[in-house]
Amino acid sequence: MSKSHFYSILLPTYNERKNLPIVVALIEEYLKDTPHEIIIVDDNSPDGTQKIAEELQHQLGPEKIILKPRSGKLGLGSAYIHGSKFARGDFLIIMDVDLSHHPRYIPDFIAKQREGDYDIVTGSRYLPGGGVAGWSLSRKVISCGANYLTQLLLRPPISDVTGSFRLYRKSLFDTLVNQCTSKGYVFQMEMIVRAVKAKLRIAQVPIIFVDRIYGESKLGGQEIVLFAKGVLQLAFLE
């Protein structure tokens, strides 16, 4: 009988008051037989996301819902570092709260990790069985172009380097995340590039990425330019 692991799910939030309770309810549904905790890191959302998080904690209890809010919008990478400090899990699961990452895939991540004792399991839109839903043609073109550029320059061992739906072995996550210097979308790529350099064991599972249901997409022209610069910098990472 294999040891039952404990899982910490990190949910960085900013203006996700409508999405957060849905995501938490789905996590509870799909992980009802799996030991876990949910760590919510809200960056002082003006829409009252923290108030919703407090209500969820009241409903599910402080052992299940851990609240670690911050004073302002300080970035995704630092939100993971902050949340990880309070995580009790053997493994961390990071995901977006905008419903683009469906919690139904979390059991697949856990099963894949156990299958090969992997250090990282990442969701991929580009594996058979994966894909995107709700995207415009221009968004699909940008995404495919970004992924092609990444594959060409970085030659990673996985098909979707920019994905942010992942499972990490906690001890290794802390090491990787503290080495990273990138921000935004490039942060996810740097984590994988550094993991490959450290010879960590990485696996993939197919996911369907669904465009956000409530709220506005955070992808804009400035992010695309920063992404291209980031790929070029990572291509020469020592």
UniProtKB/TrEMBL annotation:
Catalyzed reactions per annotation: a di-trans,poly-cis-dolichyl phosphate + GDP-alpha-D-mannose = a di-trans,poly-cis-dolichyl beta-D-mannosyl phosphate + GDP
Pathway: Protein modification; protein glycosylation
Domain Glycosyltransferase 2-like: 8-175
Class of enzymatic activity (EC top level): transferase
CDD domains per the UniProt record, alphabetical: DPM1_like
Chief site of localization: endoplasmic reticulum
GO terms for MF: dolichyl-phosphate beta-D-mannosyltransferase activity; metal ion binding
Cofactor(s) of this protein: Ca(2+); Mn(2+); Mg(2+)
EC number, as in UniProt: 2.4.1.83
Gene Ontology cellular component terms for the protein in this record: endoplasmic reticulum membrane
Gene3D superfamilies membership: Spore Coat Polysaccharide Biosynthesis Protein SpsA, Chain A (3.90.550.10)
Localisation: Endoplasmic reticulum
The protein's assembly and partners: Component of the dolichol-phosphate mannose (DPM) synthase complex.
Function: Transfers mannose from GDP-mannose to dolichol monophosphate to form dolichol phosphate mannose (Dol-P-Man) which is the mannosyl donor in pathways leading to N-glycosylation, glycosyl phosphatidylinositol membrane anchoring, and O-mannosylation of proteins.
Official protein name in the record: Dolichol-phosphate mannosyltransferase subunit 1
Species for this entry: Adineta steineri
